[in-house]
Amino acid sequence: MFIFWDNSNIHISGLRVMEQVEPDKPRELFRTNFNNLLQLVKKDRNIEKIYLSGSVPPPSNSVWDYLKNMGISVQLLDKTADGVEQESVDMSLQTMMLRTAIDNAANPSTIAVLTGDGAGKQLGEGFLSDLKRIKKLGWNIEVYAWEISCNRYLKEYAEQNGLFVPLENYYNSITFLKRDRYNDSGSNVRPSTPLVI
Q: Could you report the per-residue pLDDT of 68-87, keeping only the tens digit for each?
């Protein structure tokens, strides 16, 4: 299987969930447990490659180095002068998805995407449109997203044509608050009590 991780989308959407689950806690304490999130997606399957796209700054270089040490291919792109993430972050990940699907067309397996972004479908662009192309090539598709902010068309397509996993169900395992709430640090990711949002 191949994993494609839209880090900015997952982090920003996770903050929205945190505001509802832990409204009394400061946003700047919110963290993703990268290892547990990866284990949630991987399960007991063999991973060929993991691609992660994000923008700088933040987080610090130590976060990116940690991800690289986990075997993740990290691609970082600068934000605009006013701090806005460029569309090229998503486009770079989508390009790698399509290249992977085409380069491995003789032996399709599973492509798992961590995002909630379904923008661009009207123009035949974006994660949703590219997942449709990949599915036609014989690949299994999986989408892992925070349901609260996931594009509804992306969610519906994944549910009907593959697998959709709402990350809210794993909130306590895949997130923690710096110096405050610690998560299950083991390699087994257990579902939290489903959240009502």
A: 788 887 877 665 555 554 55
Using alpha carbons, select from 185, 163, 160, 164 the residue that is nearest to residue 174.
Answer: 185
What is the predicted pLDDT for the residue at 54? 76
Mean pLDDT of the chain: 83
Q: Which residues are within 8 A (CB) of 157 and not within 5 positions of it... i.e. 6 or more apart? A: 128, 131, 132
Q: Tell me the per-residue pLDDT of 93-110, one tens digit each, with 9 for 90 and over.
A: 899 999 999 999 999 999
Distance CA 154, CA 190 (A): 25
- Look at residue 123 in the predicted model and tell me its pLDDT: 47
Rounded Cα distance, 148 and 104, in Å:
33
Q: Which residues pair with 52 in a beta bridge?
A: 5, 74
Helices (H) and strands (E) in the chain, counts: 7, 8
Secondary structure class of 191 (helix, strand, coil): coil
| pTM for the whole structure | 0.84
- Joined tokens for residue 13: 């959407």
Name residues whose C-beta falls within 8 Å of residue 130's C-beta, 6 or more positions apart in sequence.
94, 97, 98
